[in-house]
Design a protein that fits this description.
Blueprint lengths: L3 E5 L3 H12 L4 E4 L9 E3 L5 E3 L14 E5 L3 H11 L9 E4 L5 H8 L5 E6 L2 E4 L4 E6 L3 E5 L9 H13 L2 E3 L3 H22 L12 H17 L6 H14 L6 H7 L10 H11 L4 H11 L2
Parallel strand pairs: 1-2, 1-5, 3-9, 5-6, 6-7, 10-11
Antiparallel strand pairs: 3-4, 7-10, 8-9
Helix pairs in contact: 1-4, 2-3, 5-6, 5-7, 5-8, 5-10, 6-7, 6-9, 9-10
Bound molecules: pantoate.
């Protein structure tokens, strides 16, 4: 099946997808948000520089065989989906790839008929300028159908194969919601603590953060359970420390957002836990504290 990949925005993860597409000779187009610059360069993990050569985005509209990858922040998603809903054929598959939660519900509202996939990645990357991305940590990507848009074979295999070229290795997850909640716990712990304390991820190994990180995991587990997603607390806490170890040198995305005075993803991360907890009548004091502290920065 022929395919063309379309990447929204000019963020770091979008840059990695573009590099993966180019290196695997998959046609791709870049669609920066209005007012944003077009990405030009990706510094690969081995230090090589890749000059991006996308197809021109203006001439041809999207067709049913065009895949739309949406690696935008959840705070940017609503405007983007609203803008795309009339120009996107309802058969075009869409992959949402962002930190935090809330994308599934927005896609249900604005793209009710498209095949929608949810993904989460542990690749590390950041922007060193408006057009230049550096790939800092090799990770992996989990992909599955949105529970609100159930999709089927052979499309699932096809999308997994394309995503594998763009931002692999990809693991297909029938339980993608569980994977998203696990990543949510990682972000709830690492992102606000690194942003508030102005530290790289690795400094969270210090004993002074142990109690906070453990409680964040307990709270996420309790809220997930109330939302019918079963997470194992010990495995979750281990996962968080494992990511801290593997990304020790990195500055988290929230740390970078705060440093560059950009909007953070706090609403979709600790903010999501606080909101869901409130609805379920669960106390989440540490997530609330971190949420308010980041909001007040
Ligand atoms: O948001 C981030 O920075 C990343 O998701 C993670 C895994 C916390 C690593 O920095």
């Amino acid at each position: 099946m022929s395919v063309r990949v379309n990447i929204l925005g000019s963020g770091a993860i979008g840059g990695l997808c573009a590099a993966g597409a180019q290196l695997s000779a998959t046609p791709f187009r870049l669609w920066p948000r209005p007012g944003s610059a077009m990405l030009t360069t990706v510094e690969l993990i081995n230090g090589e520089l890749l000059n991006l050569a996308p197809e021109s985005a203006r001439d041809k509209p999207l067709t049913a065989t065009d895949l739309l990858i949406v690696p935008l922040k959840v705070t940017q998603l609503k405007d983007a989906l609203k803008a795309w809903r009339y120009s996107l054929p309802s058969e075009s598959p869409v992959v949402l790839l962002h930190n935090g939660m809330g994308g599934m519900e927005l896609a249900e509202k604005y793209l009710p008929d498209n095949p929608v996939f949810l993904a989460t990645t542990s690749h590390g990357a950041f922007k060193t300028s408006t057009t230049y991305i550096r790939h800092t940590g090799k990770g992996e990507t989990m992909l599955g159908s949105s529970p609100r848009h159930p999709t089927q074979m052979p499309l699932n295999t096809h999308i997994a194969e394309i995503m594998n070229r763009c931002i692999g290795p990809v693991t297909w997850r029938d339980d993608i919601e569980t994977a998203l909640w696990q990543k949510l716990a990682v972000n709830c712990a690492i992102n606000p603590l690194t942003a508030l304390n102005n530290i790289p991820n690795g400094e969270l190994r210090a004993t002074q953060y142990l109690a906070t990180i453990t409680t964040v995991c307990e709270e996420v587990c309790a809220v997930a359970g109330a939302c019918k997603v079963d997470l194992n607390l010990t495995a979750l806490t281990e996962l968080v420390f494992n990511v801290i170890e593997r990304t020790a040198e990195n500055f988290s995305s929230m740390h970078q957002d705060v440093r560059h005075k950009r909007t953070t993803e706090i609403e979709g991360i600790n903010g999501y836990i606080v909101k869901r907890a409130k609805k379920k009548g669960i106390d989440v004091p540490i997530n609330t504290l971190l949420y308010n502290a980041v909001k007040n920065l």
